[in-house]
Amino acid sequence: MSRPAPIPASSLPAAAFRAPFRIRFGDCDPAGILFFPNWFAMANAAVEDLFRLRLGIDFHQMHAARGIGTGFVHAAGTFMRPGTMGDEVLMTPLLRRVGNASYALDMHIHRGEEELARLDLVTATTQLATRTSTPVPPDLRAALLRYQDECGNAAGQEIPA
To answer: Which domain holds residue 79?
Structure first.
């Protein structure tokens, strides 16, 4: 497995959605460094913000009223530099692929130009009532593909280093 090289924030597509976060006291271990599982909780929050603010889809309504779940079925991270208490970071999700019942994205996490971490996330769509896989709903599929196209990050395209 090759470790991805950090890339500066300015190398990401200008059209990409960016979710700001501040690393808080409660996010950190006793050394004041962000406890690594919290990156994944923050990534999920960034995905919720992406849905609402960029895709125009109410994440909570999709789960509660429509009964469609979107949960991580794969989550891996490459941690390049520590995030510390008080840091202001930007989380930038970029889609790698939209499949039949899942989508994959890279979550780039930057403090200024410095990439702190990159998360490899795969999200599956499920019927919450039966806990079974279901196709990505057409409105979500269209919104994800539109976002991917707007970012100029079509499936298989590499982000320049």
So the answer is: 15-150
